[in-house]
Amino acid sequence: MATLSIAPSLRTTPEGLLWEPSERWVRGRKGEVTVVDSRHPVLVWEPGVPVPLYAFPRAEVREDLLRPARTPLLGAHTGSTVFYDLAVDGALLENAAWTFPAEDLAGHIAFEWSGRTGRGLDHWYEEEEEIFVHPRDPHKRVDALPSSRHVVVGIGGRVVADSRRPVLLFETGLPTRYYLPREDVRLDLFHPGDHHTGCPYKGTAVYWSWCGGEADVPPDVLWSYPEPLPAVGAIKGLLAFYNEAVDLTVDGERLPRPVTHFSRAPH
Q: Do 202 and 121 belong together in one domain?
């Protein structure tokens, strides 16, 4: 979050929230029902949360669909004590929306994204493009660059990948990820799982887990984006490992394992 504090457009609140206005036209739906239609959204970063969310002026929200929460999730969001259930299509979605206590954000309502928390609105659009999991951070870059670096990946002393044609993915706030051609990875030492994750910058990832047996490796240590978003199309079908869980050597230099929120358990 430190890199965000220098952006002149960002404001802070006494509660520790960062926020800034956005000029994007944002819509949120539950099924076929449009719940949010906003041309004046606000991006909000909560303390300790690496990704932003949107809050919207009440006038641009279907407040007629909101009910005071029967069982408020107190503590779920910074300082929030007012939560709403969402009544739509005969169903009641508990704690789908809330307000922040910050004076700066008075008159705004925020919503959960089902792709991130499992509850809330399930379709979000910025202009005419559908956005998944959470809003994209305007202060973050994601660049996928083809390279000729020599990348060797080891697990438990065994070489599981060796490539001189990686694509390096640079994503603000995360370690460089090395995406490798399948032909350069010992995919026979891994088994595919049914786990998937979504990323608003890259798309939907599929995963493999280590089946070598002799090393303590977390599940889903290897992943790929079969159909990445156009901005990172260079990683299509390539495979990447969590640097946090494998031995990574680049151009003969053994890289230290980074410590991130993926270190304990990937995803």
A: no
Q: What is the pTM of this model?
A: 0.81
The domain in which residue 214 lies consists of: 142-255
pLDDT digit of tens for each residue in the chain (267 aa)? 344 444 568 999 999 999 999 999 999 999 999 999 999 999 999 998 889 999 999 999 999 999 999 999 999 999 999 999 999 999 999 999 999 999 999 999 999 999 888 889 999 999 999 998 999 999 999 999 999 999 999 999 999 999 999 999 999 989 999 999 999 999 999 999 999 998 999 999 999 999 987 668 999 999 999 999 999 999 999 999 999 999 999 999 999 999 887 766 555
- Residue given tokens 């008159």 in the structure block: 107
Query: Do 247 and 212 share a domain, yes or no?
Result: yes
Position 31 in a domain: yes
